[in-house]
Design the sequence.
């Protein structure tokens, strides 16, 4: 019986057309993801090469002034996307993942963005996470919306009821067949993505797959609930499509608009201005007080000579650092505000499957806001490390040749990878169970309505 | 004609009496209100913040004491992007463009702190704005309300009666289209009222915003767009055998035109015309600047030649004898050269972007949704060219600032090298206040029309096509 029903379903031409279309969309998305990854890799390669050339050239011309040389030298700090980022590009196209920093003030450098075409960003990425969160529900709706109503409108429902003792089982069987087909499509896309992009089979990939399947399951539960309302085919289509518009189009926008309107980030601008003023006004201030403030942060450099009249690099880099110090509070406040935005979005997102899935996909792929904030925070450590390494050489005016410049290659950031399985699965499991349970109850109340 | 009127009236009556119209209206009004409130709140708050920080940045600029003008060239200034009042209506791509840029000598900084860089991935589902509701949600509503118009009459055989009573298909399609269009206009009204009210509520009047013309173009565009959507819905209904198949076709059309095509076409554009990232871009700029002359290199040929020719032209044999400050002159020359190289590269980059976007722009002929969106964005001052406009103004200001400081240096700073015990050279602080602050000017409407003529022509073409479509379908449609 099950087998027959299965063959009956997949024999339909429209089912195949739909499957081929969605498979094609999935493949396109995988290639778009791959393209994205290749572009990122090319950028990393290019920055690695140009850093070397850049250092070599500057070292050649500025041979005897370490402080001046360090004014120019840039060092790359890279957040290299993992292969799985190709399946959920997330915010990675907006947020730069290559920072090239000098030892001068950090706050004036670390928010520098990449160059991009805003039109591309606005239309967004057609990646696999988009295909799964936004398009797969449509396939599920197309497969399911008339499962029951067709039987009724075609007059075969009474027959089913007569022949089968349990109409519910009959209905679930039909949905089960469709789930197998959608699941097979999803699985094959994931497998192909794995092979084409070369994603390692690790916890992140497993989490991605589990999330995708749970999400698909939730949409089957939504379809089930609508089906058992026993409405006509057209009404079913309307209801399911409204659910899709609501969950995949309106709710994310509503949440986002709220967050944007409610949590403006003026702290960003005050960081910018305070950094500039904090540094530049030091030129007009008493050198001694500048240096004493600097030595409070770094007492270990107290013994370098800085109080000869005129310009010297100890004073210059102290001024640069005090620019950062002046902006520190605002910079922290800004990060707190961004954390808050991220938290509010995630919390609101929990209640809606599409938003939850999207945020989790990007979380798994390390392309979300959380990881970007981690990266931004860690640039401060990278910068601090650079400064502490070069300060003694600048302040002591080491010979430029004495430094082994070849070892200054780009440094990579590693995001803390923690997949919170419970947080990932529970909202979807819960939503699925509630919707399905409600569907069963509804069906039992009026199973026979014809 | 009277038949058309009758049919349109009948369509309106059916919609009015249907059970769904009340909930649909409520949902629509709620969404419109939400979009107006959040749009208004974001607009006023953002402009308030940006104006405040522009003023603060200016304050500390003016507070600088007497100093060497080159210090001021490095002190620099900021340009904050001021939102256009119509961004309440359509936020366009503003969330993805930087809002503040630091302007200093020698260096073109990126505009940073875009809304997107402060956002989670939810932003990528799209934002709710009045324009988005008009472009995406309203067509769907019209398709829902219109799919049954003729198909259902065919299904229950009333179409036959209608035709036998003397109505022609042309009249039936015209009538229903006009009816559906009237519904669309009714839905458009709260959007227009919301937009105009929120603009009228602005406490400060906006100069040069070209509000009237912009609103007029958007309003006419919206009306044409809704007409095209209405004809689409009715035409599909006229050739579908059942209401169900009409609905499914219309949903497919909507999905294609509103969701899939805009995304894929842009992806195709950026695939065909790959643009360099920042690192590649900067490496190329740096290489070109080095080729022209490296002011850091003491043996650079270009700067050596320049020095010789300057000395010769002024009939002196050493820099000390020059009547102007030589390093100010060198920096002026360096700034001019590097800015030119940078702008050439930027121009090339933007040509690539234009090509990428060209795919979407021209697609307006196959997808009226894209055309209408391009129009609303551009005329709301939130499109690509508005952003370019801001960038150009910021760069012009930056260049002016750097060169003004260089000129001051040439004029007032001596060529005599100071010993470390001398008091450093400085000029009077009144020079800072006399250099004007950055103030953003919106694009002129004429300029926008020039840039958007493709979309405007495309929408007009669709309008024409809709009339042909009615006649074509009328000839093809069958009673049963």
Sequence:
């Amino acid at each position: 019986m099950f087998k027959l029903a299965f063959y009956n379903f997949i024999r339909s031409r429209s089912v195949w057309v739909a499957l081929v279309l969605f498979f094609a969309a999935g493949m396109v998305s995988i290639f778009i993801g791959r393209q994205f990854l290749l572009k990122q890799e090319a950028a990393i390669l290019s920055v690695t090469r140009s850093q070397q050339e850049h250092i070599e050239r500057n070292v050649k011309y500025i041979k005897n002034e370490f402080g001046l040389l360090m004014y120019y030298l840039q060092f790359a700090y890279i957040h290299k996307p993992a292969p799985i980022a190709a399946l959920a590009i997330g915010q990675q196209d907006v947020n730069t993942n290559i920072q090239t920093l000098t030892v001068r003030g950090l706050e004036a450098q670390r928010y520098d963005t990449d160059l991009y075409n805003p039109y591309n960003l606005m239309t967004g990425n057609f990646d696999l996470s988009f295909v799964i969160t936004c398009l797969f529900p449509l396939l599920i709706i197309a497969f399911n919306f008339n499962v029951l109503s067709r039987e009724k409108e075609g007059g075969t429902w009474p027959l089913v009821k007569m022949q089968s003792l349990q109409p519910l089982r009959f209905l679930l069987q039909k949905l089960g067949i469709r789930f197998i087909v959608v699941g097979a499509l999803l699985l094959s896309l994931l497998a192909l993505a794995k092979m084409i992009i070369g994603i390692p089979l690790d916890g992140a990939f497993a989490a991605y797959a589990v999330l995708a399947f749970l999400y698909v399951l939730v949409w089957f539960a939504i379809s089930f609930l609508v089906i058992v309302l026993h409405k006509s085919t057209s009404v079913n289509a309307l209801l399911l499509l409204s659910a899709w518009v609501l969950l995949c189009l309106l709710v994310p926008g509503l949440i986002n608009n709220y967050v944007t309107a409610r949590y403006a980030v003026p702290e960003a601008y005050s960081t910018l201005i305070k950094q500039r003023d904090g540094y530049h006004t030091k030129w007009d201030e008493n050198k001694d007080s500048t240096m004493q403030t600097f030595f409070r942060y770094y007492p270990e450099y107290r013994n370098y000579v800085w109080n000869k009249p005129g310009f010297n690099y100890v004073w210059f880099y102290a001024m640069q650092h005090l620019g950062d110090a002046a902006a520190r509070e605002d910079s922290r406040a800004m990060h707190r505000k961004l954390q808050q935005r991220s938290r509010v979005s995630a919390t609101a997102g929990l209640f809606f499957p599409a938003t939850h899935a999207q945020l989790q996909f990007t979380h798994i792929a390390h392309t979300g806001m959380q990881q970007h904030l981690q990266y931004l925070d860690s640039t401060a450590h990278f910068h601090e490390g650079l400064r502490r390494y070069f300060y003694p050489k600048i302040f002591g005016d080491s010979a430029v040749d004495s430094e082994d410049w070849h070892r200054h290659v780009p440094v990579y950031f590693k995001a803390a990878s923690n997949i919170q399985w419970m947080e990932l699965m529970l909202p979807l499991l819960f939503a699925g169970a509630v919707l399905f349970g409600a569907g069963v109850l509804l069906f039992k109340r009026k199973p026979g309505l014809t | 004609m009277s038949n058309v009127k009758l049919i349109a009236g009948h369509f309106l009556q059916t919609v009015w009496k249907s059970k769904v119209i009340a909930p649909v209206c409520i949902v629509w009004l709620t969404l419109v209100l939400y979009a107006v409130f959040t749009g208004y709140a974001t607009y006023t708050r953002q402009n308030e913040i940006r104006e405040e920080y522009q003023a603060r940045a200016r304050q500390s600029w003016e507070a600088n004491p007497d100093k060497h003008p080159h210090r001021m060239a490095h002190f620099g200034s900021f340009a904050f992007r001021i939102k256009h009042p119509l961004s309440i209506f359509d936020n366009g791509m503003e969330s993805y463009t930087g809002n503040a840029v630091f302007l200093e000598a020698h260096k073109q900084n990126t505009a940073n702190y875009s809304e997107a860089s402060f956002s989670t991935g939810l932003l990528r589902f799209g934002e709710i704005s009045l324009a988005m509701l008009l472009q995406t949600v309203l067509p769907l509503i019209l398709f829902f309300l219109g799919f049954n118009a003729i198909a259902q009459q065919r299904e229950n055989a009333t179409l036959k009666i209608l035709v036998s009573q003397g109505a022609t298909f042309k009249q039936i399609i015209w009538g229903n289209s006009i009816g559906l269009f009237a519904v669309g206009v009714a839905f458009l009204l709260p959007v227009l009222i919301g937009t105009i009210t929120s603009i009228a509520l602005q406490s400060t009047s906006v100069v040069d915003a070209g509000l009237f013309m912009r609103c007029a173009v958007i309003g006419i565009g919206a009306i044409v767009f809704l007409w095209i959507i209405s004809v689409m819905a009715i035409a599909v209904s006229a050739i579908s055998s059942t209401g169900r198949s009409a609905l499914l076709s219309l949903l497919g059309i909507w999905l294609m035109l509103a969701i899939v095509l805009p995304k894929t076409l842009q992806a195709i554009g950026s695939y065909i015309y790959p643009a360099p990232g920042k690192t590649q871009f900067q490496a190329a700029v740096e290489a070109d600047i080095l080729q022209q002359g490296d002011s850091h290199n003491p043996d650079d040929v270009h700067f050596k030649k320049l020095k010789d020719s300057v000395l010769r032209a002024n009939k002196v044999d050493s820099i000390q004898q020059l009547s102007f400050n030589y390093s100010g002159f060198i920096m002026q020359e360096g700034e001019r050269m590097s800015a030119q190289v940078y702008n050439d590269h930027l121009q090339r980059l933007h040509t690539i972007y234009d090509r990428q976007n060209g795919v979407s722009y021209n697609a307006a002929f196959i997808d009226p949704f894209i055309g209408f969106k391009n129009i609303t964005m551009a005329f709301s001052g939130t499109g690509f060219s508005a952003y370019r406009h801001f960038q150009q103004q910021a760069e012009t200001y930056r260049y002016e600032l750097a060169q003004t400081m260089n000129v001051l240096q040439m004029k007032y700073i001596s060529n005599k090298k100071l010993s470390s015990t001398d008091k450093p050279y400085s000029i009077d602080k009144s020079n800072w206040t006399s250099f004007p602050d950055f103030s953003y000017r919106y694009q002129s409407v004429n300029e926008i029309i020039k840039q958007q003529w493709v979309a405007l022509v495309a929408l007009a073409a669709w309008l024409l096509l809709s009339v042909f479509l009615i006649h074509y379908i009328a000839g093809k449609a069958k009673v049963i």
